[in-house]
Amino acid sequence: MILSVVFIVPQEKSLETSFLITYSIILLFVSLIWFGIRYQIKDQCLLILIGPIRLYSIPIEKIESINRSYNPLSSPAASLKRMKVNFDGGMVLISPKYEKQFVKNLKEINPDIYNGISWENENESILTRFVYSIL
């Protein structure tokens, strides 16, 4: 009986240590993703970066349209109030901080981009717009 107690105590401490290490790594990864999402316009391309990792490099000439989306799918967007960027070959959901300026900068490079975002109805809550998009 005493022998089993001696073996249990070191195992609990090692489990506690491994839990703290695992938890710290997960917290660091989530923080990097949450606070490290950036969108850059560089060399006629839209770059989507998460921390030091370049996730997407989309030529701005291939962007066809930008629309509002409240889609909860996993994407490089830290908000539910998202912009859906359709381009030749796919789509991506993003949430830049200054949306109007971002769209203006993209349209300066490619004036053929269709902007389907209505800026007038932006006063409704995100939850209300999300429910509308589901219906």
Q: Could you say which structural class the secondary elements and strand pairing correspond to?
A: alpha+beta
Number of strands: 7
Measured as a percent range, the helix fraction is 40-55%
Spell out the helices and strands N to C.
Answer: HEEEEEEHEH
What's the arrangement of strands in the largest beta sheet? 6-5-4-7
Poorly predicted residue ranges = 1-10
Number of helices: 3
State the gist of this model.
This protein is of the alpha+beta class and 135 residues long. It has three helices and seven strands.
Topology:
Elements (H helix, E strand, L loop, with lengths): L1 H34 L1 E6 L2 E6 L2 E7 L3 E7 L12 E6 L2 E5 L4 H11 L4 E2 L10 H9 L1
Parallel strand pairs: 4-7
Antiparallel strand pairs: 1-2, 2-3, 4-5, 5-6
Task: Explain how this protein is built.
- The chain has 135 residues and is an alpha+beta fold.
- Helices cover 40% and strands 29% of the residues.
- It contains three helices and seven strands.
- The chain has helices spanning 2-35, 99-109, 126-134; strands at residues 37-42, 45-50, 53-59, 63-69, 82-87, 90-94, 114-115.
- It has a four-stranded mixed beta sheet with strand order 6-5-4-7, with no helix packed on it. The chain has a three-stranded antiparallel beta sheet with strand order 1-2-3.
- It is globular, with a radius of gyration of 22 Å.
List keywords for this structure.
alpha+beta, four-stranded mixed sheet, 135 residues, disordered N terminus
